[in-house]
Protein 1
Amino acid sequence: AAISVSQASCKNLCHRHQLFIDFRDLGWHKWIIAPKGFMANYCHGDCPSSLTMYLNSSNYAFLQTLMHTVDPAVPQAVCVPTKLSPISMLYQDNNDNIILRHYEDMIVDECGCG
Amino acid sequence: SHFQEHGFLQFLGLEKVPSPDRFLPVPRILRTIFQDREAAAAGGIPQDLCYVKELRVRGNLLRLLPDQGFFLNSQKSSQDDSCLQKFLYFNLSDIKVKEQLTMAQLGLELGPSSYYNLGPELIVTLSVVEPGGWEGSDPKPGRMLALHSVPWPQGALHFNLQDVGKDWNSSRPKNLGFYLEILAKDDSRYSGVKFQLEDACARLRHSLRASLLVVTLNPEQCHPSRRRR
């Protein structure tokens, strides 16, 4: 069934936004050799009760939303990452060791209500 | 903000923010692995983060440790054919107890390859120095690990130290020491031109760089590989 939501409110719904993390902004360029930065992204937006089941939500989020309608003291589901991926980092430590390491959960690939 | 940064760095496995004086050159193998993984991630290709396919070993952390050793017998007699003797020392204290060493490879950079630098053939001998065998006295060579005959100049030499890896996993020493000796093989082409040999050895002493590449695996982050049926 079609969902009647205006274009304006669609923009406010939970979805992924671009966020480039530049290591220079954090001062980390002094020890990270590569990469210089990466597209980490972030999740932001509303998770209205009426649309929870359409916004890549977990079963738990759906139930939490139902509970919120029954008892407003239960918080509404929020927009969170639902799929993350790793990056590799090449850096130099204080002992002049050069280290190549993977770091899990550094890039937001997908968002949903949870 | 500083408190949060500290917490995040601990999550990354770092005690504090590194502040190296200068960046050291990154060896090609590490750059290649990094670039391959970056390309795979960009292409959405699934990766096994606990296997280093370029080195064909399991592991999720690669470290290149610089040599912190020193040259030996700098006042040696000019009669022998010994080009140089060096004690190679690597500090392994940053490797956490949880980590299992899956590969150790010693790299020796003998200097740039050049037609004009052609010189005598070299005999490179690498021996173990037992832990503690360098405290208070000059390190002495122990069990020989490798003996290589190499034409001059050779660029980089690599020694796979599988036994060292096995020993390390059982005894967990905080450091490793090796005795490196390079001999210039006597060659009739160089008879009477001893000064050229000495020049070649002096150049080698200047250009020699040693490093230890270690790959470790943290079992908490990597599940055992599936056994083949």
Protein 2
Amino acid sequence: TIGAVAVDTHGHVAAATSTGGITAKRWGRIGDSPLIGAGTYADDRAAAVSATGSGEYFIRAVAAHELAARMRLGGETLQQALDGVLADLEGIGGKGGLIAVAPDGEAAWGFTTPAMYRGMASADDRCVAIY
Amino acid sequence: MTKWRIVIHGGAGSERIAHHDPTHEARALAGLNAALDAGAAILADGGSAVDAVEAAARVLEEDPCFNAGRGSVLTEDGVVELDAAIMDGRDRRAGAVAGLRTTRAPVTLARRLMEQGPHVFLAGVAADRFAAKAGIEQVGNDFFVLPERRRQLEEALAAGNDADPIKYG
């Protein structure tokens, strides 16, 4: 799975996610990536979010929307909301990662798997890593 | 004016690099950098966040290092099925597609659906037909399939129920 989230100079956010799913999937299985609110979500009132990991759990947690709701309704910061969603996912057995940006230009990411490919760029900052 | 920013991911997995190719890590890093370049160039020029995320995702869909577009994992039947979504935070417009087999750029189809389609979510062969009708490039399913992914499928099938579902995700 791949994904991107961005905030532009006007403070608008967007998210995109694309995937081939899981190896040897059967029966027309669809994961969280194309499900709006689960693996992909963007709302200028809170954040843009893209997810990767064990999709069934991200669907059940409505993970991407949950992150935005924790900010909008719960008053959490972007990183607090992201960490909270990952903790909630772990509590039901899900593993994976999230990336997110907020309309104010803040960015956050986190993952509960041993590995995650990720990168970030801004007007004055850049990093790319495979962890 | 907000400081622009773009963040990308190329997946998360159960091993650091679940891959037999020793050059994979360097190629994956190059792919991530190329995706950042594509998105950052748009944002630095005052472009929109939705244009930036589509551009970055397209680079990663074309890069065989990642499980999206060309290089995707295989279903039990040995074919590639692709899913994608895009969402614009300005007005929460969204487009999503699932189970594509012949559309080269799934995220671009999702974008087209978001902007021009009457629905939010399309699936299966009919979604590929929608893409063809919209003039979005169609390719044979073999275009997406790499030998390494066939090996991984064989490994997963041999492991049966013990296979890790996100090992190559």
Protein 3
Amino acid sequence: LPQTPVRAAMSTIQQLMAVLKSASDKPTEKLILYFNDCTVNPMESILKRVKELGCTFKEKFAEAVGQGCSEIGSQRYGLGTRLYYRVMESILKSEEKRLSIHNFSKLLNNGIFHTSLLACALEVVIATYGISRNTSQSNNMTMETDLSFPWIINILDLKAFDLYKVIESFIKVEPSLTREMIKHLECCEHQIMESLAWRSDSPLFDLIKQSKEQDGQTDHSEPANC
Amino acid sequence: TQDYHFGLEEGEGISELFDCD
């Protein structure tokens, strides 16, 4: 059959569904082993966070697209959670190989890392369906409009610069991402670099300040946020 | 991923970005 925009969009969604069909929406056995190897086991806080952010996501999703669509919000969050655990496991395997360590207590007990990783997974899911809408030009699917980036970081109260820190690792370890999706994540990166990371409450300014202090070049006449 | 520009330095990973040893 000839490729059409609709067929291409459906194929993207089917590909995501196929990859995540075998993935779990709970930590896998391998992940639990990583959690058990930590100085402080992060399992409970991870499950609690996923549950709490799920409530926020579903509530905001329904507000954005209509209360009648709350079930769709739950489905999207479920897919995002599966991708989050899948990528988390791949990242840990990759870091284990790179650093030759098994104890990832600091990383796995860092709430910002988890929220960033989950946000990235959810952005992939949202964009997959968003791409479908843009390609199919179907009027009854325009409800996704309000969910485009940076919607996800706003509703999860995440700083754009923190999301930026996970995108590259996410792309590196997730082989199923389509070329279109990698381009989308790259666009998110550009948006962050060009404007979102430079908002006054961005953690980037603290990093710049720390960096200048480490270099012994702190200029007191000009605050970092100038 | 051939068109994607990777910004992490050689030998650097996500642990460093979240201040982990």
Protein 4
Amino acid sequence: MFEARLVQGSLLKKVLDAIKELLNEASWDCADSGIQLQAMDNSHVSLVSVNLRAEGFDKYRCDRNLIMGMDLTSMSKILKCAANDDIITMKAQDNADTVTFIFESPSQEKVSDYEMKLMNLDQDHLGIPETDYACVIKLPSGEFARICRDLSNFGESIVIACSKEGVKFSAAGDIGTGNIKLAQTSSVDKEEEAVIIEMQEPVTLTFACRYLNMFTKATPLSPQVSLSMSPDVPLVVEYSIGDIGQIQYFLAPKIDD
Amino acid sequence: KKKQSNITNFFSKK
């Protein structure tokens, strides 16, 4: 028996919004410790990893490890039927070929349930090595979304250059060039408005706008985002999911041909 | 000119 109840059901709705453009289908691995999802986009350029800790749920039970393969378009359609303030419960029997989503209004006066077929997905899992990144940039998630959107007008790629002076995002194309520089904030009223740069060595890498823009669909999940970079390895874009977990996007850099 | 690399170039299959 698997059962996970989340009073703050809107978080699950936001997680789906954050992955459904990038992934058509994916497996949710349910275990005693919580729920995880790892999947590559169709082109194998990026990898998404979602981690939801068991303690983050208001009720969590997972008697046997369970892999629930889902069509994410279908899952998203079902979650759209939940109101933002609904309590969401996911339920499945051991070895079941369906999962049930239960939505309860806060007053408990409306209860809906939707059953969805599970899929058998043969997906590769990749081992992500523990990495000490040369640069870790924390910035407001809305600011990052704005930067990616604005620079996408100029070209297909964004160059992210992190140095002790700050971080510079650049794009170049037919209409011209754009540069956005952010310095570390000296003092802020709210922690979530801060730009914090931890740098061991300067790093400059180039990434596809299309993917960065898809990652920013996670913006409603968290007021802050962190970007981790080291030379010649994938960028990690990480958002926390309330206090129940996090979503990480890994994006392979563009390299010299 | 830069070309897009694949994530599988960096992370191996488990």
